[in-house]
Predict the 3D structure of the following.
Amino acid sequence: MSSSQTSNPALPKYLVNFENYLKPKKLDQCQPLQHFEKPTGRISYLTRNLKRLKLLRWYYSFSKFFGQLPLPRFLEFLRARKDDGLCKRKTGFEIYCEMASIHGFHIFVGAKTWQRVLWWLLICTAVLLSLVIVIMSLSMTRETPTIRFIDTMMKPTSEVPFPAVTICGLNTISQRNLSEKLKKRNASWLQLLEDLAPSICQQVNSCQWENRVENCRKKLQAIWTPDQRLCCSFNYQQKRFSSHLGLSVVLSSNNEGFGSALTASASHEILIHESHEIPSTFTPKLLVPSGSEAHLMVRPFVNRFTENLGSIDLDKRACYFPRERDLFYFSVYSQGNCLAECRSEGIFRLCGCIPPNSPRRQGWSLCDLQQIQCTINYDNADRIVEEQKQCKCLPPCQFHRYEFQGDIRLIKEMANRSIGNSSLISPNEVRLRIYYDSPIAEEQVLDVYENWLTFIGTFGGITGLFMGCSFVSVFELIFFTCVRPTCNWLTRQQILWRRRQKISVIRTG
């Protein structure tokens, strides 16, 4: 027994005076629990000078006067609290201001009334400016929905289809054939055109493609233009690609037997266009005089579109997608082909027939010589502009455009300069060479001015610049306006339900 007592001695007891422990160490610096006035201490040198200049007096009097002004009911939340939020329960707006990431909202907690009003005006101004700029951005998007920009300059010309080269003569009717045909009666308009028009393809002496030995005369096609001219075209309705050599053609310029008001110095017209498009008066052309050599340096431009362009309506887009509009005569859509079909429809509605060699539907009759004046009146009338607007011949969204420059030299000067080969050069020939001027083509892309991704970037940049908003700010606003009040209401309803259950148990017991 004695051994256990010696082995487990009693623990020492310490007496603590709790009243002395809770007393503050420095009584002179102690303040009451809810004493909010600042203690008076030493006045700084700057404060003393400001009091001398009466700036602080004006500041305090202005803030006191502004704080006594009555506020409307919908601005009562801007009134400063007397207890600094320690005695009364904080509202949801004050909790949101303490935790919000938007610039300036934390000023509403613990600030004076005039400071709250001033910051509220600044925030409202920032919100208004951001809304105005966002609306201006949307209006610019609606006015200019598409934009064209250069995507790359490194597209090789060997991947760009070579254009169609159409050669037309300015002498359209042979006087010798005309005198013979006028002696015959009952000749139709189509027969006169086919018999009297000179064949340009027969005037081609040689044709070389990509500087090959084989002759490409068999690949030439005779086509009719909308102005009733028989021309000779290379690469029409076909698709060929050229590296850099291009096309070389030699024509014999024989103007004997043809009547024309023009001189022999401008005997051929060269038109450069897309291979699936019929040449018209709007096609770029170059006049080549007889007895000359011309070099046409072509520069191709590729126009394509992005998938984002499909979200825009046709009226705003102002161009057709491939296979979006079908033509009744041509297999491939182009603006020139559409205008040619529109002209044929207009002439058929006016005259009941169409000119020969024009686009036509099945069942349309050809005009005769007695109806030539009707077609001439249609071309001179103002209704053609209105009908073209009704046809809506918009340009395609994807096409190739060709620009060229011509270098023309007279063969006589070349023959005089050459010594040994002067007999090989004929002064009545027309020599043409058409090729790409550069191995690189320029590609342009049609894209929307602003899609949903760029709009998010624009909206985020504007709101971040004026208010400092972000996705976190949106989530905070949704939480404090929807989620938190809903959770508080559900909690309140649960507490009330438990109280009713307790009251019902007490009453039944």
In short: The longest helix spans residues 471-508.
